[in-house]
Amino acid sequence: KAGVTQTPRYLIKTRGQQVTLSCSPISGHRSVSWYQQTPGQGLQFLFEYFSETQRNKGNFPGRFSGRQFSNSRSEMNVSTLELGDSALYLCASSLGGLSARTDTQYFGPGTRLTVL
Amino acid sequence: AQRVTQPEKLLSVFKGAPVELKCNYSYSGSPELFWYVQYSRQRLQLLLRHISRESIKGFTADLNKGETSFHLKKPFAQEEDSAMYYCALLLEDSNYQLIWGAGTKLIIKP
User: Fold this and answer.
1) Rounded to a whole number, what is the distance in angstroms from the first to the last CA of chain B?
2) How far apart are CA A39 and CA A51, in angstroms?
3) CB distance B44–A107 less than 8 Å?
């Protein structure tokens, strides 16, 4: 079974631009969660999508948004990029999502975003 | 506020010695806790969750509600245990989210 894939793996943008990251979950998984990882703040939950609906959300500004398609692939968009958005963005997929206590999240390799 | 604290950024022990990675949490609800591990050049992966009460790769973790802790333990460390370990807390209300500790880098010396 293919694992979670994320594209692109590396991205360089300038302040003010916007960016779209993509995550393809494991086949059959309906939940995709997104996380931001930075040296200063560590791992932080962004949001979770399940069956094309945002089900849960972390404490990030509205510049961070996402969506999920009918094939469960998910995209995350960051508008008006700031220097502080430089981070590793991870996505994870699972069958039932965060509310399914015995579910396991499988992580992708991440997209490294650098904002100049 | 909900919080997960891993007090040690780095823990270095000799092979064969016991290992304890500390995790403390702050949460008013019923805690659902996890340990995740990231080996060098590999993806983040679930190691164990408290609800399963399982032992994975010789590691165990017991939830102590009185001390609000969920420490990860292994009696005899092996070199392949060297990795980054993260403790995570699942917040459960109308909005589920995972809160993460800062992580502990475990180095097993030969």
Assistant:
1) 40
2) 32
3) yes
